[in-house]
Amino acid sequence: MPPLEHAGRRVRPLIGELRALGVAALDLLFPALCPVCGATLAAGRRDPLCGPCWSAIPRLPAPWCARCGRPLPALHAPPPAAGPGAGDLRWPLCGACVGSSSAYDWARAAAAYDGVARDAIHAFKFRGMTALARPLAALVVEQCAPAVPADVAGLVPVPLARARQTERGFNQAALLAVRIAGALDVRVRRRWLARTRATRPQTELGAAERRANVRGAFVASPAVAGRHVVLVDDVVTTGTTVEECARALHAAGAARVGVLTVARVL
């Protein structure tokens, strides 16, 4: 093997070793603390979450409702075997989805919006701890990757109003989408969906007010026509925001619309 090729193959492991040594040295000088519980990071850490917090996240295992992703009773049999990348979207519908319709075709969340998951998302969004995008995106990949079909053309982060993004300094959905896309080998398509106007924070509103608040607030690019696209956001509460986003994507011709979130309210 030529010397240059051999050296090139050593570059990545060497960089990893140097990074690990650098983290260890920094931890000795400035011990890293978990943003959720304040404990010093140690074994099992998923920076910047400590090992116990990472393990305590209330994950949502299969079986799920084929549409909304809510957990189903364990008595449901597994879906028929599928080929690689086919997803697992053939579970039955939950009681809430039977007889109802939805603008999106399927949704999956990695965890219940409770406990450590809720606290980590709050620290991420409202305390500016953007490093939490790394473990939260890893959680989505860990729990939801098998549900993502192979024909997805792009991940679309739910857009923030310009003023809110300027105030916050980042769009949490976009930070998550970039990391999830890297793991799934799918492109992030930020320009496929835009917010046409500012809206009030959904947390301040009741269900009917939430629907009115976001109605007509999004427009999709013609580039989505005929494609399977997946919305990415941090949390689904009532689902009104992702419903309106999915409605805009379908109006522009999207063939299928999925939803991936870190957590959902059960």
**General form:** globular
Structural class: alpha/beta
How far apart are the termini? 57 Å
Number of helices: 8
Stretches where pLDDT is under 50 for at least 5 consecutive residues are 1-12, 20-30
Average pLDDT value?
A: 85
Second CATH tier, the architecture of the largest domain: 3-Layer(aba) Sandwich
- How much of the sequence is in beta strands? 5-15%
Under CATH at level 1, the class of the largest domain stands as: Alpha Beta
- CATH fold topology of the largest domain: Rossmann fold
> How many distinct folded domains?
2
- Largest sheet descriptor: 4 strands, parallel
Secondary-structure element sequence? Answer: HHEHHEHHEHEEHE
Number of strands: 6
Fraction of residues in helix: 25-40%
Strand order of the largest sheet: 1-6-5-2
Radius of gyration: 20 Å
What structural keywords apply?
single chain; alpha/beta; Rossmann fold; two-stranded antiparallel sheet; 6 strands; disordered N terminus
Descriptive account of the structure:
With 266 residues, this protein is α/β, with parallel strands linked by helices. The chain has two domains: 1-30; 62-264, Rossmann fold. 36% of the residues lie in helices and 14% in strands. It contains eight helices and six strands, in the order H-H-E-H-H-E-H-H-E-H-E-E-H-E. It has a four-stranded parallel sheet with strand order 1-6-5-2, with helices on both faces. Helix 8 links the parallel strand 5 and strand 6.
Topology:
Blueprint: H1 3-29, H2 51-56, E1 106-112, H3 115-126, H4 133-144, E2 152-157, H5 162-168, H6 172-184, E3 193-195, H7 207-214, E4 218-220, E5 228-236, H8 240-251, E6 256-264
Helix pairs in contact: 4-6
